[in-house]
Amino acid sequence: MPLKEGNFRKVNAMQEIQSEQVATHPSLGEGLGRLFKTFFKIGMFTLGGGYAMIPIIEAEVVEKYGWVSKEEFLDLIAISQSCPGVFAINISTFIGYKLRKKRGAVCCALGTALPSFLIILLIAMFFHQFQDNPIVASMFRGIRPAVVALIAVPTFNLARSAKLTWLTSWIPIVSALLIWALGVSPIIIILAAGIGGYLYGTMIKPTEQTD
To answer: In the chain, what is the straight-line distance between the N-terminal and C-terminal CA atoms, in Å?
Structure first.
């Protein structure tokens, strides 16, 4: 039975929507391969540790593919910081699990860790041959300021996205001073912040909403 013109247009529209979802959403189409390639690229071009990886992950996962929202990304950062282990592996595992459950978590974690493993393995094999090379030493001195910038930029972006106000800006300032000046363990800061946030959300915030 032939389709009417209106129904035919609806079918074409549905097919176009499905093709766009396959092209952009990792849970459809190629999926795991794209996840692995994306996080392998992130791991390959990240210098300065997990925190320097934040803007690159955000550019790929949030802005380019839209796999998670900005708010979800901030929550994943907070969870990854609060969990034991390497920050970069933690956040890539959480993102992978959100998208493709266990297989996605494994693919993202391997994609993130594999470049560092291979590069460090090569450096360890040949380090004694160029450790005193002045050219290599100069390269590392030039990389250090860039690494500082890579860490500073996501810090300011996170502060802006977290919607800090004059009433709440004292929290990161006091936390930083406690860690830097008094040597308080970051674990204690994280636990205290989590407990404080829980108490605020369950006891104080409901009263503010009723007012």
So the answer is: 62
Structure-block tokens of residue 156: 């300011």
Beta-carbon contacts of residue 74 (< 8 Å; ≥ 6 apart): 158, 161, 162
Residue 6's SS3 state is: helix
Residue 161 to residue 150: CA distance in whole angstroms = 17
Q: Match 């074409």 to its residue by tokens.
A: 12
Which has the closest alpha carbon to 76: 38, 143, 61, 7? Answer: 61
Least confident of 18-32, 44-58, 59-73, 104-118: 18-32
Give tens-digit pLDDT for 143-153. Answer: 777 777 777 77
Phi, psi dihedrals of residue 167, rounded to the nearest 5°? -80, -25
**Neighbouring C-beta atoms of residue 18, cutoff 10 Å:** 12
For the entire predicted model, the pTM comes to 0.59
